[in-house]
Specification:
Layout lengths: L5 E2 L1 H30 L8 H26 L1 E2 L14 E7 L5 E7 L10 E3 L3 H6 L7 E6 L2 E12 L1
Parallel strand pairs: 1-2, 4-5
Antiparallel strand pairs: 3-4, 3-7, 6-7
């Protein structure tokens, strides 16, 4: 996940905020849960204690993952992204060749992907299939649901 991570400034800041929240708030909340569970006595059959320890483990894994991602991240300057081809941070306007419908995707890192906002990861099947394409290209992309057929109509910055 951390190798070759490209983030926008906003994406980097969001991850940094999440990391700070985990370290300064969530960690303390989980430690409080562990302390309360310990106070209930016998730890060998204490489900509350086990659940709190598992939550602590998950928080520490998330902190470690975010620290690695942020330390290896390259922050992209959106002003320097070209639109001659589909690159990360470009918005690709496509025509679905089966339905005739237009669709727009903004290519982003996996960490910033949000399908509800039309932001797809460059590591997803569609993202991989669009990278390097130019206006006029016709592209067939194999996805779990079958084969998608697109024509690239426009490449722009959002």
């Amino acid at each position: 996940m951390t190798e070759g991570t490209y983030l926008t400034r906003d994406g980097y800041n969001r991850l940094k905020d999440e990391l700070n929240h985990l370290k300064s708030v969530k960690r303390d909340e989980v430690l409080e849960k562990i302390s309360e569970a310990r106070a209930h006595g016998d730890l060998s059959e204490n489900a509350e204690y086990e659940a709190a320890k598992e939550e602590q483990n998950q928080v520490e894994i998330k902190i470690s993952t975010l620290e690695r991602t942020l330390s290896a991240a390259t922050i992209l300057d959106e002003k320097q992204v070209r639109t001659d081809k589909a690159y990360i941070l470009t918005t690709v306007v496509l025509k679905n060749l089966d339905s005739g419908k237009k669709i727009e995707y903004t290519l982003v890192s996996a960490e910033e992907a949000d399908s509800d906002l039309g932001k797809i990861s460059v590591k997803s099947p569609v993202g991989k299939g669009l990278l390097g394409r130019v206006v006029g290209d016709k592209v067939d992309i194999k996805v779990p649901a079958g084969l998608l057929k697109f024509e690239v109509l426009e490449i722009k910055l959002k």
